[in-house]
């Protein structure tokens, strides 16, 4: 392999690593708008909305002890990334009658970033960031 090819690969890795880091960091700033109603992380408690630890991949309406609307609870949704993309852009469009009174994030890039941030927390609220970084670099 030529020296230039190696440099190109090294550059691509550096760029993709940085792009991922930026996503979650930018998502953390965007999460400020969610934080009025949702907590996340090791010491998170139920607030206006349910705790969002481990929400990516979770079944809708299943955070223990939170009183959901029937609309959310009966939706049958699993919060995978594709569904979250649509929901966070317009909650009422995905779960008609939800009590999440949030108009939605209109910028798909912001939605992506906030999902990257949510993905950092496992069900216990521990940050899984270090594991994801390792996987990114493989
Ligand atoms: C004004 C308060 C409010 C804001 C702001 C808000 N939410 Fe919510 N959210 C809620 C409520 C209340 C629910 C419960 C919905 C229901 O039961 O119908 C909810 C539900 C959710 C759910 C479904 C959780 C589950 O366990 O089924 C997700 C995911 C979610 N919100 C993510 C977000 C994100 C990400 C943001 C910021 C971009 C955000 N929310 C902003 C109040 C809010």
Q: What can you tell me about this protein's structure?
A:
The structure is a single chain. With 138 residues, this protein is mainly alpha-helical. The chain is built from seven helices and no strands. The chain is globular. The model is unreliable at 130-134 (pLDDT under 50). The structure holds heme C. Heme C binds at residues 33-34, 36-38, 48-50, 52, 55, 60-61, 63, 68-69, 71-72, 79, 88, 98-102, 105, 114.
Q: According to CATH, what is the topology? A: Cytochrome Bc1 Complex, Chain D, domain 2
Tally of individual helices = 7
First-to-last CA distance: 19 Å
Helix-residue proportion: 40-55%
CATH architecture: Orthogonal Bundle
What compounds are bound to the protein? heme C
- Count of spatially separate domains: 1
The CATH homologous superfamily corresponds to Cytochrome c-like domain
Q: What structural category do the secondary elements indicate?
A: mainly alpha
Low-confidence stretches: 130-134
Kindly provide the name of the CATH class: Mainly Alpha
Rg, Å, rounded: 17 Å
Number of strands: 0
Order of helices and strands: HHHHHHH
Mean pLDDT: 87
Overall shape: it is globular
The amount of beta strand, in percent, is under 5%
Provide the descriptors you would attach to this structure in a database record.
138 residues, mainly alpha, Cytochrome Bc1 Complex, Chain D, domain 2, binds heme C
